[in-house]
């Protein structure tokens, strides 16, 4: 991981976007006469739409004006501007060329032409234009800046330097020019010259810490760490709370692999209010990308995340990264609180909603999942995973009609072979079963088992439902037997298989499997124990049956026939 805090020209050659601020745009020679009313109307509509950035409509009106006045340079100028907005350089160039045919003196037309030629890599034409503008207005800074940009773009670095020197001589030392000169010297592999430019900038502004920080960052860039450390310490001597210097020192210590001092300076930087939250978040994000750093120093990085949330408790970005750290530590309740703060202000963040709903699911908090999924669907009405969360939470809360509505729609918009297909089919089957539409429920289970033939949970539930129907018992037995083959010690699967054998009146075999279910039942399920009693009864062990039925009374979760069974000493269906 590498951290950098001053991005203005630190790496590579940053092209300055020319922004001519001299004077006002040229005015068109619109004259209002009775016989010229259509032209006047079209022009004002074109101008209005241009200002409102409705460029397509503006272009159509300018074209109508051009049909009436094909010798008006302003119309070509505006059409060139629109073409440039669309990055259509060929069309922009053809319009500006036509404009200059009618007026090659107007500074705005020339300025536009120079930029278009530069973007189109017509460097000689662009150079002539800006030299002409400089001759006309020798005190206009932007003209020199654009000329230097042309040389940079053309990779004519020596000419660019000559322009920078001319600017400096004419206008004095300027930060942007010093940075550009430094970049050019680095490109030419002249580190000393690059250094001299920044030292000159610092000396010209001895009270400005900002320039010292740029010089310190430069030393880090070229690997002269001790010089950088010296500058940062000098700044901190005068201003101990300067967060940028603390962070800069942290970078230096990182290069030296001194992680104790690295984190000490990071903590000081994160505790400083002079550094914006956005920058601190960016630093933490960079750290998390370095897996080795995270693995070896997780606790120290986590402390930075805690500092971040301490200073910016409501910031959505701070809470997002804080939630990630808490998730990594297994503190999902705290992570959920942080994510809930995020969605209070960032309701359009799909990933945050998804993570929040997964946590609800992990916490088995169906009320929260129902609430969060409903809100997520307001902002993402066509996302299948949110319908799924809404469907399963509705199901768990016994809101079966709502569950059906959400799952039906979500499944319709689910992409083919999506990872959620099996889960959707499972819960669709369960919901329709709860709504007593067994035919539809079983069709979903059948469809699921064609795409996921080893889904043991569905095979178990499906086979148990069939046993309750007392129909298709052979199919139920076949499915249930597969589950106990795969998991021979699963008490739930053993209980289902035993109950199917019971319904098939194969009581002796049913007893073998229900005993295995009881032996493996760690949770001591009342359902399994009651089934055990029922099967004992049909194996002529009345005393054993009553004993097991009475056990259910102490465990709980018995059937509504349990008391009658105990009182009568008989199995009641």
Written overview of the protein:
There is one protein chain. By secondary structure, the protein is mostly helical. Among the domains are: 89 residues, Alpha Horseshoe (Serine Threonine Protein Phosphatase 5, Tetratricopeptide repeat), CATH 1.25.40.10; 106 residues, Alpha Horseshoe (Serine Threonine Protein Phosphatase 5, Tetratricopeptide repeat). The chain is 73% helix and 0% strand. The chain contains 31 helices and no strands. The radius of gyration is 38 Å and the shape is elongated. The N terminus is likely disordered.
What's the SSE blueprint?
Elements: H1 37-51, H2 55-68, H3 73-85, H4 89-102, H5 107-119, H6 123-136, H7 141-153, H8 157-171, H9 175-187, H10 191-204, H11 209-221, H12 225-238, H13 243-255, H14 259-270, H15 277-289, H16 291-311, H17 316-328, H18 332-345, H19 350-362, H20 366-379, H21 384-396, H22 400-412, H23 421-434, H24 438-451, H25 456-469, H26 473-486, H27 491-503, H28 507-520, H29 526-538, H30 542-555, H31 562-568
Helix pairs in contact: 1-2, 2-3, 3-4, 4-5, 5-6, 5-7, 6-7, 7-8, 8-9, 9-10, 10-11, 11-12, 11-13, 12-13, 13-14, 14-16, 15-16, 16-17, 17-18, 18-19, 19-20, 20-21, 21-22, 21-23, 22-23, 23-24, 25-26, 25-27, 26-27, 27-28, 28-29, 29-30, 30-31
State the gist of this model.
With 573 residues, the protein is mostly helical. The chain has helices at residues 37-51, 55-68, 73-85, 89-102, 107-119, 123-136, 141-153, 157-171, 175-187, 191-204, 209-221, 225-238, 243-255, 259-270, 277-289, 291-311, 316-328, 332-345, 350-362, 366-379, 384-396, 400-412, 421-434, 438-451, 456-469, 473-486, 491-503, 507-520, 526-538, 542-555, 562-568. The longest helix has 21 residues, at 291-311.
